């Protein structure tokens, strides 16, 4: 059994027990979990193996790529500009990005970008990992594209394009890439474009071996529908998630600053980010309250699940499965099983960061159990 280390308030021993059990039953390889309650750190635990190839242990400062948990941080960067009056949600994107207003996109607003309504969930041509490291070139590609649907008429998860769209908003209003802006405004341990030293000590993503236990949350019928669509190269879900195609252990990706899926961080730093959101440190309470209000809800054109989006943040739904007690939470999951969230009502901020990548589109029971245990501690 993996040795779990760190600190845990005795009131949250249930979180420790769930975390320890996840190693004992093979659900985790290496992972970390952190919880803040009313701004106070109450859980900071880690354990297991950071690199299956070498046996390197997960340590207190091991960072890991968190996939789409990145979107919440990138969204907060844009919302900070809204908070400061640099841009308004109903502004047409073409007002500050004239090249974007072609091929039926003249009416796309900032809100459309943040709510996955822009109709640009996938690139219309092959993109390499090297090209993805140039945010200006990536934005230019999207500016020239024709949308998949009339913007504002529906929504679908912009799995990778979201980052370069929102990143261009940040770059055009601050002159800095979104990763640099995040580093300056939100803290040094949220790396969107990680330096070489950070990449070298990061946990290595692994996939379950044959026969290892599964942890899917959603029903078999939905899993089957998603699997069939993902097996079709022309489907939106395939095109949105597989281009650019890369290994999330590739230093070129981790250092390339992918602003929708490439952030490297620790559970401690991600939970602290959410703590600062709900305590008005990062954004005004007014801006955050507006950002977590559900703007669109229903069947996602890309994910093929029921989804609910605020401004960049997900709310509980099939695509962001949370325990019933967490109905007030907002945040974002990541494809590898990571999650970051906060709940203004309960005062909790929670992050779980694993390196064993499970059930890409089917939810993840590991995070679900940890969140449930955290809420039970304050019941």
Corresponding CATH superfamily of the domain at 62-73 and 181-204 and 217-354: DD-peptidase/beta-lactamase superfamily
CATH class of the domain at 62-73 and 181-204 and 217-354: Alpha Beta
Q: Summarize model confidence as the mean pLDDT.
A: 94
Proportion in helices: 25-40%
Largest beta sheet, briefly? 7 strands, antiparallel
The secondary-structure class comes to alpha+beta
How far apart are the termini? 30 Å
How many strand elements?
Answer: 12
Instruction: Based on Cα principal axes, name the global outline.
Output: globular
- The gyration radius over C-alpha positions equals 19 Å
Uncertain spans? none
CATH topology of the domain at 62-73 and 181-204 and 217-354: Beta-lactamase
Percent of residues in β-strands: 15-25%
> Secondary-structure element sequence?
EHEEEEHHHHHHHEHHHHEHHEEEEEH
> At CATH's second level, what is the architecture of the domain at 62-73 and 181-204 and 217-354?
3-Layer(aba) Sandwich
Give me the number of helical elements: 15
Question: Can you tell me about this structure?
Answer:
The chain has helices at residues 13-24, 70-83, 93-96, 110-114, 129-132, 135-144, 161-174, 178-186, 196-201, 220-230, 236-241, 251-254, 267-278, 285-291, 365-377; strands spanning 4-8, 30-37, 40-51, 56-57, 64-65, 190-191, 264-265, 296-299, 306-309, 330-333, 339-343, 348-354. It is an alpha+beta fold. The protein has a domain at 62-73 and 181-204 and 217-354: 3-Layer(aba) Sandwich (Beta-lactamase). Strands 1, 2, 3, 4, 10, 11 and 12 form a 7-stranded antiparallel sheet that branches. The protein has a 3-stranded antiparallel sheet with strand order 5-7-6. It has a two-stranded antiparallel sheet with strand order 8-9. Helix 1 packs antiparallel against helix 15, helix 2 runs parallel beside helix 7 (161-174) and helix 6 (135-144) crosses helix 7 (161-174). The chain is globular, with a radius of gyration of 19 Å. It starts with a strand and ends with a helix. The model has no long low-confidence stretch (mean pLDDT 94).
